[in-house]
Amino acid sequence: MDDADRAASASRQPAVACPGCDLLQCLPRLGPSARVRCPRCGEVLATAPVDPIERPLALTVAAAIVLIVANTTPLMGLAVAGRAAQTTILGGALTMWSQGQALTGALVAICAAIAPGAYLLFMLAVLTAVRRPPAPPWVGTLLRLAGHLQPWAMPEVMLLGLLVALVKIAELATVTAGVGLYAAGALPVLLAAIAVSFDPGAIWERVTWVGNETPPRIAPR
């Protein structure tokens, strides 16, 4: 291919702006595990994951199962002076609500159960729909909603609070870790793995656009 053919091929590719220096450039088609950097500042413009669909889907299914286990099985059991008690994540949030700590209970329920559950539900719908391209246009809407929900899915904050509480009450009561506690510990790891393996650009390329027009490619930030 001579210079004229390369220039013609590049002109057919949508231009993207580098998020680091705003240099307009055309991205080539990427092979597996390939990465494109800006020639001016070295900013990573695009990456091509090895398995952009199946791997995130498997991780999302695993995270959904772990989330269900974390919210339906006891986190821990406490025994003191011959009395024992145990609770779940939503049970603890409900107890806070009934004891006058409505705001804290609502935040626990949203960040530890509702937001992660909705995020994983949207991700499952998106990844299932794009397995056979072209994907329906509603996939884009769910992908945006998942992006808005992701910052609110913070089970690791709740897990840190549980660990602090365990340290404080370990000398006053007998604490027994439940299955839910192990599931709550595995959930942040799976959510991080989903974020690392998921490529939104690969999803957008499979979405059917109105009028069959090719969407503009935007450099990831």
Key phrases:
221 residues; 2 domains; three-stranded antiparallel beta sheet; two-stranded antiparallel sheet; 8 helices; disordered C terminus
Indicate the topology.
Layout (H helix, E strand, L loop, with lengths): L2 H10 L2 E3 L6 E3 L8 E3 L6 E4 L6 H19 L3 E5 L2 E5 L1 H10 L3 H28 L8 H12 L5 H15 L4 E4 L1 H19 L2 H5 L17
Antiparallel strand pairs: 1-2, 3-4, 5-6, 5-7
Helix pairs in contact: 2-4, 2-7, 3-4, 4-5, 4-6
Uncertain segments: 1-12, 213-221
Main β-sheet, spatial strand arrangement: 6-5-7
Task: Report the sheet-strand fraction.
Answer: 5-15%
Overall number of domains: 2
- What percentage of residues falls in helices of 4 or more residues? 40-55%
Shape: elongated
> Which structural class do you get from the secondary structure elements?
alpha+beta
**Mean pLDDT across residues:** 78
Give the topology string: H per helix, E per strand. HEEEEHEEHHHHEHH
What's the gyration radius in Å? 23 Å
The tally of strands reads 7
SS element count, helices: 8
Q: Give a quick account of the main beta sheet: strands, pairing sense, barrel closure.
A: 3 strands, antiparallel
| Intertermini distance | 32 Å
